[in-house]
């Protein structure tokens, strides 16, 4: 797929300086630019590369004025970084804009789908599923009975959506995601064995949620596990039964949230964080990587350590952690002197 400088400038509301008919068909870093590639210059530390890049077209800020001869065609915009991101989004939409139902696949007669629907081969759509407009479901995906999927949602290859799940509009669910598997519910009996506690709730995912590859979100025991609008989940995250995650909260990879914990809105949670069950995490909380949380957290706290300490307290304490051998040695010397 080729685009001219003129076409790209039209998308970005930019100005072409150079050849408006210059064509590109791939993207590159500015330092790795080759003929036929499109790149951008936003960070001043890379400015030297624009004089040597072989990229055919380069997006730059409108304030950029070359100090010597350049071979690349420029597209001048208000903000080069934002414009390049916008272009990537536009390119992605074109690349992913598949339509139609591939064969073989199973699409239950009782299911309904909207306009511009795409269903990849070897996928399964269960009974009474309702799918909105512009939904894309890639190959080898499973969608169980009574699932609802909102407009413009993309489900990538190999995702599994269990029955009764509700997914909102403009969501992205990456490969290997499992939504709606049973929560970890077992009750011990008098013989020390464990019996399964039925998990009969569901999962609700609101609008504009992104879920990274191989993340799992368990169905509720009763009621719903809820992922509120705007939440962004990284790869390989475990969300247990009856958890609720507030609007626009971001969680990095390998974090685990135990059952029935409520996380507030606008939180930022680092990688490999462990959060115990039945807790309340306030709004605007920031959690450093590898922190362990076993208590309720108030709004806007910043945490680190395991068990979690206030961030500033952790940093002060860490100074002493490093000196513990020396401190112990000094205490032993004092004890000897006193004896």
Automatic annotation (TrEMBL):
<keyword id="KW-0443">Lipid metabolism</keyword>
<keyword id="KW-0012">Acyltransferase</keyword>
<dbReference type="Pfam" id="PF00132">
    <property type="entry name" value="Hexapep"/>
</dbReference>
<feature type="active site" description="Proton acceptor">
    <location>
        <position position="241"/>
    </location>
</feature>
<dbReference type="InterPro" id="IPR020573">
    <property type="entry name" value="UDP_GlcNAc_AcTrfase_non-rep"/>
</dbReference>
<dbReference type="Pfam" id="PF04613">
    <property type="entry name" value="LpxD"/>
</dbReference>
<keyword id="KW-0808">Transferase</keyword>
<comment type="pathway">
    <text>Bacterial outer membrane biogenesis; LPS lipid A biosynthesis.</text>
</comment>
<comment type="similarity">
    <text>Belongs to the transferase hexapeptide repeat family. LpxD subfamily.</text>
</comment>
<protein>
    <recommendedName>
        <fullName>UDP-3-O-acylglucosamine N-acyltransferase</fullName>
        <ecNumber>2.3.1.191</ecNumber>
    </recommendedName>
</protein>
<comment type="function">
    <text>Catalyzes the N-acylation of UDP-3-O-acylglucosamine using 3-hydroxyacyl-ACP as the acyl donor. Is involved in the biosynthesis of lipid A, a phosphorylated glycolipid that anchors the lipopolysaccharide to the outer membrane of the cell.</text>
</comment>
<keyword id="KW-0677">Repeat</keyword>
<keyword id="KW-0444">Lipid biosynthesis</keyword>
<dbReference type="InterPro" id="IPR001451">
    <property type="entry name" value="Hexapep"/>
</dbReference>
<comment type="subunit">
    <text>Homotrimer.</text>
</comment>
<dbReference type="InterPro" id="IPR007691">
    <property type="entry name" value="LpxD"/>
</dbReference>
<dbReference type="InterPro" id="IPR011004">
    <property type="entry name" value="Trimer_LpxA-like_sf"/>
</dbReference>
<dbReference type="GO" id="GO:0103118">
    <property type="term" value="F:UDP-3-O-[(3R)-3-hydroxyacyl]-glucosamine N-acyltransferase activity"/>
</dbReference>
<keyword id="KW-0441">Lipid A biosynthesis</keyword>
<feature type="domain" description="UDP-3-O-[3-hydroxymyristoyl] glucosamine N-acyltransferase non-repeat region">
    <location>
        <begin position="23"/>
        <end position="89"/>
    </location>
</feature>
């Amino acid at each position: 797929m080729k685009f001219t400088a003129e076409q790209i400038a039209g998308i970005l509301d930019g100005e072409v300086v150079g050849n408006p008919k210059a064509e590109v068909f791939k993207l590159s870093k500015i330092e790795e630019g080759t003929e036929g590639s499109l790149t951008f210059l936003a960070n001043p530390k890379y400015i030297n590369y624009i004089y040597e890049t072989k990229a055919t077209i380069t997006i730059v800020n409108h304030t950029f004025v070359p100090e010597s001869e350049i071979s690349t065609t420029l597209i001048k915009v208000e903000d080069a970084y934002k414009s390049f991101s916008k272009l990537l989004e536009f390119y992605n939409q074109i690349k992913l804009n598949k339509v139609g139902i591939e064969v073989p696949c199973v699409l239950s007669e009782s299911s309904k789908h909207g306009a511009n629907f795409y269903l990849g081969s070897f996928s399964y759509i269960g009974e009474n599923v309702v799918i909105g407009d512009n939904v894309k479901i890639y190959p080898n995906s499973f969608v169980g009975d009574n699932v609802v999927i909102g407009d413009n949602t993309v489900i990538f290859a190999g995702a599994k959506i269990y029955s009764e799940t509700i997914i909102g509009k403009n969501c992205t669910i990456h490969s290997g995601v499992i939504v709606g598997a049973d929560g970890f519910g077992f009750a011990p009996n008098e013989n020390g064995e464990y019996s399964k506690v039925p998990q009969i709730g569901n999962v609700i995912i609101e609008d504009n949620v992104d879920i990274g590859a191989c993340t799992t979100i368990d169905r509720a025991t009763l009621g719903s596990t809820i992922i509120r609008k705007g939440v962004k989940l990284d790869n390989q995250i475990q969300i247990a039964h009856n958890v609720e995650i507030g609007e626009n909260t971001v969680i990095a990879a390998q974090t685990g949230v135990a059952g029935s914990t409520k996380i507030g809105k606008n939180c930022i949670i680092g990688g490999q964080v462990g959060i115990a069950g039945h807790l309340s995490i306030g709004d605007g909380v920031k959690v450093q990587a590898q922190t362990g949380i076993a208590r309720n957290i108030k709004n806007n706290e910043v945490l680190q350590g395991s068990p979690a300490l206030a961030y500033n307290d952790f940093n002060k304490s860490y100074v002493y952690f490093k000196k513990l051998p020396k401190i112990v040695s000094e205490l032993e010397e004092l004890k000897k002197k006193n004896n």
